[in-house]
């Protein structure tokens, strides 16, 4: 038997770990999902969507977006109260930004995909450079231990949303509630044979990386940056 909401077998059902009612939030969340993520079995966006009201969490799938293709998203990106969560030199720390901003943010956009997929979506869609760019100032390590991350500080889409929404809504309970099904998912997978996935950064620093170092200079440079804990 499969549980309809998340399509998981009954014995590993995550429904008991979801909130009884969708969390009440005023912030609108837009998830821009790379098409490759849609088929991933252990993706986190369905867990996130199951915890939030449908009119507050929208998932848009694709690589390229424009005003002609998606007028709704174009309107959202042009609003002064919209933020996009993407780290970088030009990104403001979310907590600092909301303290100084004259207009309190009403919408946040998060890109769902691998780091290379997210980078491609962010830089090849001019719409996503219209909102204010923000990043999370956090030292927490990801609890999404069943999927390899580039560095120890990389968070899953659900974790990013949990931290961002708890800041915007000024309610730490939101983060705790959103992380609960993710923790259960990882626990179930580990009980059924999955292994804890250490970050590439950890593997490289400890001489445990199982693959040969790449010959491509650009990829090799990325590996060197990971070993030296430099943001890429």
TrEMBL record:
* UniProt catalytic activity: a uridine in tRNA + S-adenosyl-L-methionine = a 3-[(3S)-3-amino-3-carboxypropyl]uridine in tRNA + S-methyl-5'-thioadenosine + H(+)
Domain DTW positions = 5-194
**Pfam families in the record:** DTW (PF03942)
**Annotated GO MF terms:** tRNA-uridine aminocarboxypropyltransferase activity
Among the GO biological process terms of this entry, one is: tRNA processing
Alphabetically sorted, this entry's keywords are: S-adenosyl-L-methionine, Transferase, tRNA processing
Indicate yes or no for the key word Acyltransferase. Answer: no
Give a yes or no for keyword Transferase in this entry: yes
Q: Which InterPro entries match?
A: DTW, DTWD2/TAPT
The EC number of this protein is 2.5.1.25
Q: Report the family membership.
A: Belongs to the TDD superfamily. DTWD2 family.
- Protein name per Swiss-Prot or TrEMBL: tRNA-uridine aminocarboxypropyltransferase
Species of the source: Molossus molossus (Pallas' mastiff bat)
């Amino acid at each position: 038997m499969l549980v309809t909401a998340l399509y998981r077998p009954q014995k590993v059902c995550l429904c008991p770990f979801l909130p009884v009612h969708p969390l009440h939030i005023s912030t609108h969340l837009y998830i821009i999902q790379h098409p490759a993520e849609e088929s991933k079995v252990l993706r986190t966006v369905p867990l996130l969507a199951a915890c939030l009201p449908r009119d507050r969490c929208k998932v848009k799938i694709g690589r390229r977006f424009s005003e002609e293709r998606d007028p709704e998203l174009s309107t959202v990106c042009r609003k002064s109260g919209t933020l996009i969560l993407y780290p970088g030199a030009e990104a403001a720390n979310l907590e600092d930004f909301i303290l100084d901003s004259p207009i309190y943010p009403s919408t946040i956009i998060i890109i769902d995909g691998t780091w290379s997929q997210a980078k491609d979506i962010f830089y090849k869609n001019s719409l996503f450079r219209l909102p204010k760019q923000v990043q999370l100032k956090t030292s927490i390590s990801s609890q999404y231990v069943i999927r390899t991350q580039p560095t120890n500080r990389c968070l899953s889409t659900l974790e990013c949303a949990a931290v961002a929404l708890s800041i915007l809504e000024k309610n730490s309970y939101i983060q705790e509630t959103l992380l609960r099904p993710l923790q259960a998912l990882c626990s179930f997978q580990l009980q059924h044979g999955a292994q804890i996935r250490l970050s590439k950064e950890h593997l490289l620093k400890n001489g445990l990386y199982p693959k040969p170092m790449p010959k491509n200079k650009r990829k090799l440079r990325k590996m060197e940056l990971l070993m030296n804990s430099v943001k890429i």
